[in-house]
Design goal:
Strand content: 15-25%
Strand order of the largest sheet: 1-5-6-4-3-2
CATH class: Alpha Beta
Organism: Allostreptomyces psammosilenae
Distance between the termini: 33 Å
Number of helices: 3
Radius of gyration: 15 Å
Number of strands: 6
Protein name: Histidine kinase/HSP90-like ATPase domain-containing protein
Pfam families: HATPase_c_2
Keywords: Kinase, Serine/threonine-protein kinase, Transferase
Helix content: 25-40%
GO molecular function: protein serine/threonine kinase activity
Structural class: alpha+beta
């Protein structure tokens, strides 16, 4: 099963972009225990430094970096709260976009709370992911061992 948010098509008017050749970073999180959100943010921050996104030199670039770090936090937190914990974080950087992927062992796909209720506790994670990403979706693992939730973000121009 693949679920996608078709809110914003790519430049050709088609669906979400798929990772092309580029740089990939992997962080194994299964069995790590506490601190996985901070560890995931630190790992992502270092990748952004290596890829030239940091230090950000404009207000727009700083905002994009903060969006990336917030989306990573929300995806990992969601896996912690609702899917038995994240197994792996993958970052795919293809120059024109960055794909964030968090894999877990649950087959249950996340869904933004509809309608979103500002001021009510909980249920904001996937709403934030939806609002900050160019596209997002869920890919079930072929072997039935869980799923990967992904989000695409664009670098500041």
């Amino acid at each position: 099963m693949s679920m996608m948010r078709p809110r914003v098509p790519d430049e050709r008017g088609q669906g979400p972009l798929v990772p092309a050749r580029g740089q990939v970073r992997r962080l194994v999180l299964g069995g790590v225990g506490g601190g996985v959100v901070a560890r995931s943010r630190d790992f992502t921050r270092q990748a952004l430094v290596d890829w030239g996104w940091l230090p950000a030199t404009t207000a727009t670039a700083k905002a994009v970096v903060e969006d990336v770090l917030l989306v990573v936090s929300e995806l990992v937190t969601n896996a912690c709260l609702h899917a038995g914990g994240p197994l792996e974080l993958r970052l795919h950087y293809a120059g024109s976009f960055l794909r964030l992927e968090v894999s877990d062992g649950s087959p249950v796909a996340p869904r933004p709370r509809t309608p979103h209720r500002i001021g009510s506790p909980g249920g904001h994670g996937m709403y934030i992911v939806e609002r900050l990403s160019h596209a997002w979706g869920v890919q079930e693992h072929d072997d039935g061992s869980g799923k990967t939730v992904w989000a695409d973000l664009m670098p500041a121009v």
